[in-house]
Amino acid sequence: MHRIISSILIKAKSDAVFSVLQDFSLYPSFMSFVKKVEILENHGGQEIITLWEIDIEGADIVWKERDLIDSKIKEISFSMISGDYGAYFGKWKAERDGAKTRLSLDLTVDWDIPSFERVIGDVLEQKTKKMIRGMLAALKLRIQSKHKTTASKESPLLQEKINTAKKFAFVIHPLDVGLVSVAFGEPNLLNRKYSLVKKAFEWLPSFQCSKVSGVKSLTGQELEGELIYFSLLPDQILSLDDQIVLDKAIAACRIAEKRGASIIGLGAYVAQIGKKGLSISKSLTAAVTTGTHYTIFTAIESVLESATRVGIDLRRSNISIVGATGAIGRICAEFFSEKVERLIIVGRNEGRLKTLAGDLRQKYYCNVICESDAKKAIVNSDISIMCTTTPEALVDLRDLRPGSLLCDISRPRNVSNTDKIIRKDVLVIDGGLIQPPGENVNFNFYFGLPKGLAYACMAETMILALEGINENYSLGGDVTIEKVKKIGLLAKKHGFRLAKIMSFENEVPDDVFTQVSAARGAKIFL
Which of 148, 237, 416, 467 lies deepest, with the highest CB count within 10 Å? Predict the structure, then answer.
């Protein structure tokens, strides 16, 4: 719980102050963030039940409260009956202070997310304090008809002195609220109003959330690393003002830089910010990478291994690349174009898709088909690779053809399984899950993977740090097959390897490979 006490001096008699204070229904007319106050019940003016709806910088908060009014001592006690807070109670008081009246508010707020409040609590408290200051100032203005305010400046965050030892950092962000609730041990977060949770993430400044331990190269080098938490959800990264998102990403990277990182990796949707990291890198002295090249290498590696285990003959198969005009998709299309019977490339931009198809036909003399419908492409494919930047699911598990293999590199996933159905006649694998070298690798923070495993983009950052390549590696759309091969060789040098084949963060049992293979032999179709 957070207790907040604040007051303001008003040049008016206490009776006049209290008269305005208790007229809640007028608050929306002179407080911009108060959207509605409705009197639900009135028991003789001494006890009333009110419904409040306020807007804190875009987050709508609604609650119903009981107000006890004591005109003799000019005090209003209130407590929430139900609403978006875990608890909300306190009292208003108007007291004579010399020739003026001191209007004070003593408020206690509980957001009912105790574990997560360790991180977001201070931010929520500051926003609540700001709201209270606004209420007091608005009441003063209403009563005096004029007031002067001095813009308040928040104290800068204290910066600890950081050791500048050479190390890497990786910027992560929440892929969904469910993942955050697990990471911070806060199941109640799922029950909070989504608009408020999103706004809290927007307010939350980036911070160092863990230290990476146990990474040791086959060459004997040990590696230091840290995870930096960038708090925006995927839909916020895509929908908020570009400059706001870019500034927030740069601020996150500067934390890593001040903490001594020689190279900084950008994870998931952070890698799409600022022309895929280019604008971010221009504001830093540390090197930056998005991990694209090693992500491609491991996706190809996992597809080849899985295809072998389920009995797919590449030379006689159809493969679809969904998101083919993106950096990862383009290289995957280039790699597989000579190895399969038919290549189906899927994208939203028809012009770019046709240009890519023309380039592939000219260079590899391959059979390429352009398609805009991901579901149609996948149902006609033996192998599919999903590598889009689309934040929502494009296909459902039930859409897949029996005996087929799908590699979903996209985060958030492009393949959903909302009904939790179990299919052992198809194989959906997670692209780019890596086992870094070391006996007890620990990221000391949950970001969706089993302990010790990393996404390929994380691994690329670690590989470059171990190799001493402190230069921008995977930025913008400049992705080449040569750099894919180079990072693959460096990974093997240091001991990074493809983890056990995983599906929705769980290891694929041997019997699934057998059953998918059997489904192919039976030629079953949905």
Answer: 237
Please choose, from the candidates 394, 406, 339, 388, the residue with its C-alpha nearest in 3D space to the C-alpha of residue 366: 339
CB atoms closer than 10 angstroms to residue 283: 16
H runs (alpha helix) in 64-183: 117-144, 177-183
CB 125 within 8 A of CB 203: no
Q: How far is CA 271 from the centre of its chain?
A: 12
Q: What does the pLDDT look like over 66-116, one tens digit per residue?
A: 999 999 999 999 999 999 988 999 999 999 999 999 999 999 999 887 767
- Per the document, the length of the chain is 526
54: part of which helix (H) or strand (E)?
strand 47-56
The position carrying tokens 């001594």 is 260
Distance CA 358, CA 125 (A): 57
Cα angle 109-112-116, degrees, rounded to a multiple of 5: 110
State pLDDT tens for residues 390-422: 878 898 888 899 999 999 988 778 898 877 778
- Give the distance between the most distant pair of CA atoms in the chain: 92
Q: What is the CATH number of domain 2-113?
A: 3.30.530.20
Amino acid (one-letter) located at 286: A
Q: Which residues contact 501 (CB under 8 A, 6 or more apart)?
A: 302, 305, 306, 309, 429, 507, 508
